[in-house]
Amino acid sequence: MGSFNRREFLQQSAVISAAMGGLSAADFVRAAPAESRTVGPNDTLRVAVVGVKGRGMSHVGGFNGVNGCEIVTVCDVDEAVIGPAMKAIEGKRKKAPDYVKDIRKVLEDKSIDIISIATPNHWHALMAIWALEAGKQVYVEKPVSHNVREGRAIVNAARKHKRICQTGTQSRSTSGMRQSMEYIHSGKIGKVDLAYGTCFKSRKSIGKVNGEQPIPATLDYDLWCGPAPKLPLMRSKLHYDWHWVWAYGNGDLGNQGIHEMDKARWGLGKMELPKSVMSIGGRFGYVDDGETANTQLCFFDYGDSELIFEVRGLPANSPYPGKIIEDKKGANFVGNIFYGDKGIVVCPSYASGIVLDKDLNVVTKFGGGGDDGHFTNFVKAVRANDQKLLNADILEGHLSSALCHLGNISYRLGAEKPMSEVAKVSDRKADQEAINRMVEHLKSNDVDPAKAIGRVGPLLEIDPKTERFLGNNEKANAMLTREYRNGFEVKDDA
User: Fold this and answer.
1) Whole-prediction pTM value?
2) Mean pLDDT score of the chain, rounded to an integer?
């Protein structure tokens, strides 16, 4: 097994910096011309998987000896988590891949064709941009960014360096979902003016620690933080519960919810940001170290249509019309409902769709497909060097991820109010009904809306062209980006 010591990296970086006239290692990656070896139709594609705990193992499965790919490098800041990935890859290759802690060292290897990124959210954009600038083809998990500006910067880097960049929203490649979307876009359910996305996924409390937690000796915590603030570890599970901390994650809106948000926007056929956003909600039912909302409603106005998105982390009932799905409280209901003037399409999973008429009778069903097709689609586009072949090009990923960020911005800027008062914030019937359902949902989980203090976010108007908020809203516009640590800045050189 190859290894890489951080002290050795810093020593090498000093040499590089001197040779480059004082440029940092990060600047060296940016200064290097975008290069990649020419890959023939029968050549093996050499892959580095970055981040191999959790979702990263799906990346290992997607590239490990599949579609003419070979995983030659595993990159993770914590050597304690790499065992399953190393074993799986060695089983295919008959030799272990290299193990590297620092992504910058991986990018120095010009023999690597693909960088596959499955790290925490705060690293997605910077790694993707560095890899694109280094001439690599990139597969990056959802959400592609931690904030709105980062997503646009990845799009610009992919276009500038003429590289393939796929987003990890795998529903884009399942046959059942693609058929469902074709049906919606065909006009068979009429004009669709409302998409309702659901992320009903029970999440238990993550607990509350008494003080700063120790950093595992196997982990380079400075590198784990990367572009995000280097904060004391104040949660018991370092490797997953970052999802619920604003510095690193985006809540379930940007975790499970991004899949459904992407499908909601896909069904509406929107390729720009909405005209406005508003969000309400809170973290209810327990007090823990999580910061993000576990109960949240977002309203996105596109002018001719609306996207409503709801997160429920407490046990919930089915949101789907008719009796197409068993209504069992506490089950996960992650999907979408598209309302047309002639019918409804319900997409209750990654790969299925059910068409209903106005009387809620089943007209037809679609299904089929899994994760493997998304990696296959990416490899096909890489071999053809054709971004248009991608089912989930980085622009799609940026727009859907940005919706999650916009919703969170409104939420975080919200005024604290009892949830019993939120029924007064919207005049739209669909909005009002969603708010009422949220209040009833809290009651069903023994949360008193009169005592539950949440946030009622402001209605923020957006310029879809500039991807900024209107009205000189300095506070909101400041949240479209973030401050970065020295050496880990996300820059847009378009």
Assistant:
1) 0.92
2) 92
